Amino acid sequence: MTTGALAGAEDHPARAGLDDVDVVFLVWREEPELLARHHEAVAAATGPGWRGRAVLVENAALPGTSTAARAELRRWYPHADRVVLRARRNLGFARAMDLALDACRGEYAVLVNSDGRPAPDMLRRLAAELDADPRAVLAAPAVHGPGEDDVPPGPPYDDAEVGGTAVLVRRTEFLAAGGFDPLYYFYNEDRDACRRLLAAGLRLVRVPATRFHHGKEGRTARGMLRREYHYARTVQILVHQHADRLLPAVPPFLLRRARSVAAHVRDGDLPGALGIALATLELPRGLLAAAARRRRPWDGDRLAAWLATARRDVEVVPLR
Fold first, then answer.
1. Are strands 81-87 and 53-59 parallel, antiparallel or unpaired?
2. How far apart are CA 273 and CA 265, in angstroms?
3. What is the greatest pairwise CA distance in the chain?
């Protein structure tokens, strides 16, 4: 949280609709019941007759997940321009979102985790904040749920970080600033992007008058190991990429890492502790990656070059 309250969404002119807002969905192994609850809530937020583009990324999705996700798009967004990006291998979050944003056509695009549900007014309130200031590139609601900040209701304010859990993106400007760095396979891509956007003089707006409930459903021991591994693996790049000096940042980082593993063990989360420990074995490679980004930062030109090649990794399927 940084500069304090701004004008609220209710102070901006009412929007005629949300057809300039595209919606990005990402699926992998979600259960049909979870997707049904998610899409019912998103459809309430887009409103009846919405004619934006719905982009579904199937990230090496299971057949049952793919079938259910496509059925939900047909059911809830009959007037939308529906497109499926089918990836045969799991691209991770950052790469999948960059390809999805590239496939969008609206001025804005909203990213929403499949295990969460937006409030009915979320899209309109977030869009109103971006409408009000062209320097505002990301707008995010208060995110509520297990492990989330649960920011209480209040006026919008400039924030130092907004997560990719639920966020409205000013699409062209975000991609021009580099979008999400594909180096970050899963987790912390949003934190890296926020740092680049702020360095470019752009704004990140938190809008706690509206909410996104993040259920984090279906977490298993294996899932917790995977989550902690990927988070620890990417955060050790993030910390050293953005540190004032790379090498002096290593010893205090390792001390914090040891304390984190110990805390997971004390709490009985042995899969999480194992995931963090396994990620730490890759710290030398992470330091090399961080050093490479410090020498040559990620930007819009590098993203455009990456997209020119990465588009071949997905099959584009119009959904009728």
1. parallel
2. 6
3. 56
Phi, psi (deg, nearest 5) at residue 157 = -150, 160
Q: How many CB atoms lie within 10 A of CB 185?
A: 17
C-alpha to C-alpha distances, 128 to 10, 14, 45, 175, nearest whole angstrom: 8, 8, 14, 20
Handedness of CA 50, 53, 57, 62 (dihedral sign): positive
Report the distance separating Cα 54 and Cα 312, nearest Å: 20
pLDDT along the chain (320 residues), means of 10: 46 74 96 96 95 96 96 96 96 96 97 95 96 96 84 93 95 97 96 97 96 77 91 97 97 97 95 96 97 97 97 92
For the chain, the first-to-last Cα distance in angstroms comes to 43
| Multiple choice CATH, 9-217+308-318, 2.30.29.30, 3.90.550.10, 3.10.520.10, 3.30.70.100 | 3.90.550.10
Give the Å distances, CA to CA, from 24 to 65, 96, 103, 263: 16, 10, 10, 36
Q: What does the alpha-carbon distance between residue 195 and residue 157 come to, in Å, rounded to a whole number? A: 17
Cα separation, 35 vs 75, whole angstroms = 12
The number of beta carbons lying within 10 Å of the beta carbon of residue 320 is 5
Can you give the residue ranges of every domain in the chain? 9-217+308-318, 221-281
Q: What is the pTM of this model?
A: 0.91
